[in-house]
Amino acid sequence: MAAAETDRDVPSALCSEFLNFSAKDTAAKWLQVSNLPKEVYQHLACYVPKIYCLGPNLNPQNEDLLAPLLLQSPLEWYLCGEEPSVGLAKLEQNNQPSQLCGHVFKVGEPTYSCRECAADPTCVLCMQCFLGSVHKEHRYRMTTSGGGGFCDCGDTEAWKKGPYCQKHEPNISDSSQKDPLANLSDEMIARTYNVFSIILKYAVDMLTWEKEDELPEGLEARGDTYYCMLFNDEVHTYEQVIYTLQKAVNCTQKEAVSFATTVDRDGRKSVRFGDFQFCEQAKSVIVRNTSRQTKPLRVQVMHSSVVAHQCFALKALTWLGQIIRYSDALRRILCQVGLQRGPEGENSSLVDTLMLCDSKMWKGARNVYHQLFMSSLLMDTKYKKLFAIQFAKNYERLQNDYVKDDHDREFSVTDLSVQMFTVPSLARMLITEENLMTTIIRTFMDHLRHRDLQGRFQFERYTAQQAFKFRRVQSLIGDFKYVLISRPTEWTDQLREKYLESFDAFLELLKCMQGMDPVVRQVGQHIEMEPEWEAAFTLQMKLTHIISMMQEWCASDERVLIEAYKKCLSALTHCHSGFTDGEQPITLSMCGHSVDTIRYCVSQEKVSIHLPVSRLLAGLHALLSKTEVAYRFPEQLPLSELSPPMLIEHPLRCLVLCAQVHAGMWRRNGFSLVNQIYYYHNVKCRVEMFDKDLSMLQAGASMMDPNHFLMIMLSRFELYHIFSSADCRKRYSRENANKDVVQQNNTLIEEMLHLVIMIVGERYTAGVGQVECSDEIRREIVHQLCIRPMAHSELVKALPENENKETGMERVIDSVASFKKPGVTGRGLYKLRPECAKMFNLYFHHYSRADQSKAEEAQRKMKRRNGEDSVLPPPVLPRFSPLFASLVNILQCDVLLGILGAVLQWAMEPSGGHWSESMLQRVLHLIGMGLVEEQQHLIGSAEDNDTNFNFTLKISRPGEAPANTPSILALLETLQNAPHLEVHKDMIRWILKTVANIKTTLECSASAPPSDSSGHSQEETVRDKDKAERKRKAEMARLRREKIMAQMSEMQRHFINENKELFQQSLEELDPSTSSTLEHSPSSCDSTLVCVGPRRWRAGGSERRQVVTCILCQEEQEIRTDGKAMVLAAFVQRSTVMSKNRKRPPHNPDKYDPLFMHPDLSFGTHTGSCGHIMHSHCWQRYFEAVQAKEQRRQQRLRVHTSYDVENGEFLCPLCECLSNTVIPLLPLTKTSCSRKLLLFVCVCCSSEQPDLSQWLNITSLQMKALLSAHRKAKAADADGVDDMDGVNDCPPPDGFKLDYTPKNPYSSTIKEMLTTFGTASYKVGLKVHPNEQDPRVPIMCWGSCAYTIQSIERLLVDEEKPLFGSLPCRQDDCLSSLTRFGSACWTVSSHATVQNHFIRLLAALVPDPRVENTPCILDIDMFHLLVSLVLSHPAVFSLDSSGLSADTAQLHFLHLVTVAHIVQILLTSIAGESLILPLHKALYVCFSRLREVNSGWHLWRCVKAGILPYLRAAAMFFHYLNGAPAPPELHSVGEWEALCGYLCLPSNLLQLFYNNRDKASLKTFCEANYLLILVASRCPKSGGDKSRAPTLCLVCGAMLCSQSYCCQTELEGEDVGACTAHTFACGAGVGIFLRFVHVISAGKTKGCFYAPPYLDDYGETDQGLRRGNPLHLCQERYRKIQKLWRQHSITEEIGHAQEANQTLVGIDWQHL
């Protein structure tokens, strides 16, 4: 491929030309010429093609070196008139530093905004300014930047207070007001003007140049080479581009990925270099391959000179941005040059040209010139204003270009709107001078041309292109919001005029939305295709804050409010002009009242949920009351022209629609309608939808006769026929026809009553009721907390946000709730203060039905707990504003009382489906509301005597003849004794009591105030009766409980007596202190328990016997050597948890010899288990079933599961824990003595067994004999000559049978399982294919046993837990099985191989000249050596029949390795004081480089601390190997003497050295070079500035760039992401990474997300900084993640997470 060729060498003649070039001379020549532009262009024409684009691959190193020297340096010389470094330094020195910070944010950079002081949420600070400002002590929000904005520090309009940080604080002398050009000489200004105008003109011409093989005048094209240039778009995916490039330019996958990454980052990339035909061929292939489904990729064949000049144009703009930083004067000159009009007039400045060509440029060019605008025009207040005017003039054209373009908004010049429109002074100026608001609205309307016949927006038949356009045009709403974000404090006539003009345009927009997406009830069959509804709701959501802000602007000026109200009313009247056309007028009569209306059935006609004009009028109507304009200027308002029935019609239809949907009448209309109803009530939309509909009904009802209003309401709910008939109270006998219809009507009656409750009871809107905004928020919070205690984030989600993303919650939360901090898990919770519970309203209008039910239950429970009545009466409400005051009359109007009476009458009969509990509950609530209202009127009657609210009187009055229906009060008195209304009795009782109180109060106020004891006595009698009844019930419940408990206790005693023997036996087994075996145990002759050596504790027959149950077949099985094999599910994994050196490269698995583990433990093999036991044959059947199932599943669904069957993985059948092998369970090894001889052995063993030196001599002879025999056998196998010297000199010692083959004691199934687990450890630990004959198999098993014990010992230290007694059963069982397996695995391996391993291991401690390649003592981990020696020794011991004890050998191994470890510690420690010790001296003699010291205490402390982990691990090993119980002292933390005693070691370990003064062995420990290992594991790789997902490895601290093509690497022949590659180097295939969330990644195919350890002040995590609250590291949660790593539980966590959440399986974790 041509693009892959090497760059051409620059000819030597060109090099000499460059070397002879003088920037100073060139600048001097330019000063003399008359036509400077021509001269500069000639210079650029000569040199630019010689520097840029010389070959297929661009060479940034050469370009960055030559461009400053040949191109920029002459310009700087000319500009300064002297050496640039000197001239620019002078400019910088004389410059007054700007008070604006202007730091431009990169992608992902943190930004800070003050919730208290920011003018709006777009006002942000960079980290440096924030830390130096007053805002860090305030309530602030923290987010990450999307890139492109800049720091607002120093902008006084952006902050209510504290606009400056310490760095940008202005000086006392007000020099900033001076003209910055005053400091420059006229010559300097002229030169700067010349240079800037030429270079900016050149850059603008080149970046907007559209011809592919020509150049502007003065720049001639040279040569005949071309580039095939590929441009970025946001339509095609990475994969499409990579595939196309591979076909078009014949490149590799890696090269194609590199091209695609560059195209995405910079916006374009040359993919081929050569002659025109060669490049044209590639272009045609790319276009052909990408034009099938979408528009093709943009490709151009461009002359190399054009590309070269465009490259330098970008450099020139960057250079301009750098130069103007030296001085504000230079910045101002550049602004003048950029905004100066050209000869063409309008839109002819260079800035205009760039803006208007924005969509034609590639991404890299846009970024560069946007950055220049931000550092020049937007940093100079004078020119920012001029630029804003030009931007506003061209606004419509710029937006049209953006909508047609496909690049994201952050790469469009329209994104700069936020920098200007959010500045209040600029926004006001643009509104008044450029009519900006109207322009934005009209531009928006122009793009949404798809309308229906009535002129309403229609989104139903949107094409993909129209939908794409609709998404892009929404950005205009954002601009409109920016303009509105700060309300004017002072209005001018011009501002009023322009605002009202824009209000007209806004009403036109809302009129197009009024009634859009109408729905008709589907009858008969289900709707065939779900209609489009999301677009309309998206528009509604985007406009929600706009509508609220428009109302706030209106409210800030009385004249504007009055005019806006008139305009809105006029618009609504226009929308309703056809309101009654075709509708049949009818007259409704009920309870002696009649009203004229129209016949309209929501269930039959078209109805729409979108009514923004009605809702805007409702908002303005409430504002008339709130601002008192309605009372002060009634003559200016058209209140008399209002038609209340017209106002309420559409909102009422909407609410009836919701009621009918709930009643199930619209279920055939599908989910689209259900979703619309959901969002109608949702917190994001309800402020300008549901709430405003309710307000409009309240406004209409307040201007109507309440009887008329209720009759119209009944008609719309289609319930009028039920309540208007004369015998409506006998409904239960009339309606038996259709059960479904009856049920629907019941639900509609419930909904209608609920609506009445809301209309009368919802007074917490400022203007409707006499309340403040804070009262409304307080009530919202109270009702949310009545459901349950809630976290801060839950409360925030439940409250509506304003345009500044604030809920106002913090101002009032402390007055209604108390905060409870979280523990290690969970979140902090707010709990309602008890005194606020009285505000609870069961029919709160923002409750969903589920919320209402939960709140009711919670409140009743709380009342019962406090010993109060569980009744939930209506709360006391604030008073209505005068404009809405007549609403209370609804409660006492005849129609409502008729409805209430009818429902109560129906409730007299047990429900046959003709009334419902909810209906009755609502009726009782309404009666309660009337009583509470009357009580409030009575209290306030002293001030306001003309009250005429007589609710008690009206409910006491019976019906008139001929019906003579009983009064409501009489019905209630009857109902309180009805047995079928038990649940409502409390409420009925409360109502009757309240009625009595009111009557008493009325009588008292009517006559002279006599004693009101009668009322009290009646109330007290009722209360006493209630108390007595509750007490009686409680006493009965207590007696019943006691009787049951006594019966249970008696049954238990009876059972124990019958089964005495069984209980006695189980108690003895449970309690070792009562066990008879203890009397005969060795500890009776020695008070300490010992786990190793001849004196170790030995298990009796009953202790050895172990019976377990298989989890698969539930059969019990005793664990025996000759029985069926029982296995534990286990998971073997490579591990670096204990690693002290993460930089050690992985070993070559084929050649690596793992016999000696290095002390840095860089890689180990860990075995874990869930502890569940199975028969081996049951497990094999289960695993075969899993394999078969996986094969079937792969054919159906080719995605990864949480386990990989090909690698032997499966889930434990019981707990679904990830496993990949099984460990066989083995019994304790039998002792050679009978229990009767134990005491004798204990006393005499020390005299019979050899000491260390004797044992070493015997063992040495045995090893020599073995070595000779092995070499002889090897020679015989090779048929060679027997030339081994001295074989006959090494006869085996007495009792050592070289030709003896020990019998394998294990059954065939156990042997099979021993091989299975050994092979699994070998395969996983070395990452090789299984091979059970490999000599490394037993080594890997011993290593896994040692490594697992070491990691668990370290875990116990970290958690400060004792060595024994604190491990969970699963780990205890795992260690026990693993250790016993280690002692038995030699039986299924080649005995000669294991014997050879033993010889080599022993040679590391006892020198043997025959053994080669023995490592230095400092290169051996001593615990691994001890475990391997002890576990390999049985292969040698089995040949010995001389009577030597294996226990003695174990003890000698322990002593030898312990001494070696002490030497190791002394050689690698650096003494801090002058210390002396005989051992140290002995070492000093052997090893001259060790420092001589002269005091021993400190060194002994170092030795003790260094050897303790080894001793603890050894104690665990021998405990599990020999089954010796741990002494009680080791069940507490840190008992040195007990540990030494348990291991049969002296508490002063140096006695081991004194007792065995074998200096020769000491010398062998020191023959290698001295070694000191320093642990340093910092990975320096970083993702750079553009890393969108910087990620931190929590294991080693490396910074990585995740999920990015640029950082992919190849691993085992597959492309993987940086994090996945890092896990193999750092964590053996497992890792934990911190992004905004924790990503736990394992291997290439698995991973999951985990909660981060950062919490905000409310005890909650904030993944992705969505809420923006400041976060702090929670130590407890971090320790939890640490523990996950140390316990090797990451793969298990991932397995559980993937099983629980299948979406995690579909993620490409390998690209992380």
TrEMBL record:
Q: Tell whether Phosphoprotein is among the UniProt keywords.
A: yes
Task: Give the ZnF (UBR-type) ranges.
Answer: 99-170
Q: Which residues form the UBR-type domain?
A: 99-170
Q: What's one Pfam family here?
A: WHD_UBR1
Q: Which InterPro entries match?
A: ClpS_core (IPR003769), E3_ELL-like (IPR042065), E3_ligase_UBR-like_C (IPR044046), Ribosomal_bL12_C/ClpS-like (IPR014719), UBR-box_UBR2 (IPR047508), UBR1-like (IPR039164), UBR1-like_WH (IPR055194), WH_DNA-bd_sf (IPR036390)
Compositionally biased tracts (Basic and acidic residues): 1017-1034
Listed GO MF terms: ubiquitin protein ligase activity; zinc ion binding
UniProt KW Metal-binding keyword? yes
Which compartments is it annotated to reside in?
Answer: Chromosome; Nucleus
Please list the reactions this protein catalyses: S-ubiquitinyl-[E2 ubiquitin-conjugating enzyme]-L-cysteine + [acceptor protein]-L-lysine = [E2 ubiquitin-conjugating enzyme]-L-cysteine + N(6)-ubiquitinyl-[acceptor protein]-L-lysine
Residue span of region Disordered: 1004-1034
Skewed-composition ranges (Polar residues): 1004-1016
Cite the EC number: 2.3.2.27
Q: What pathway annotation does it carry?
A: Protein modification; protein ubiquitination
Question: A GO term (biological process) for this protein?
Answer: ubiquitin-dependent protein catabolic process via the N-end rule pathway
**Which keywords are on file for this protein?**
Acetylation, Chromosome, Coiled coil, Isopeptide bond, Metal-binding, Nucleus, Phosphoprotein, Transferase, Ubl conjugation, Ubl conjugation pathway, Zinc, Zinc-finger
Which top EC class is given?
transferase
Give a GO cellular-component term.
nucleus
Membership in a protein family: Belongs to the E3 ubiquitin-protein ligase UBR1-like family.
Q: What does this protein do?
A: Ubiquitin ligase protein which is a component of the N-end rule pathway. Recognizes and binds to proteins bearing specific N-terminal residues that are destabilizing according to the N-end rule, leading to their ubiquitination and subsequent degradation.
Listed PANTHER family:
E3 UBIQUITIN-PROTEIN LIGASE UBR2, UBIQUITIN LIGASE E3 ALPHA-RELATED
Q: What is this protein called?
A: E3 ubiquitin-protein ligase
Lineage of this protein's species?
Eukaryota, Metazoa, Chordata, Craniata, Vertebrata
Gene coding for it: ubr2
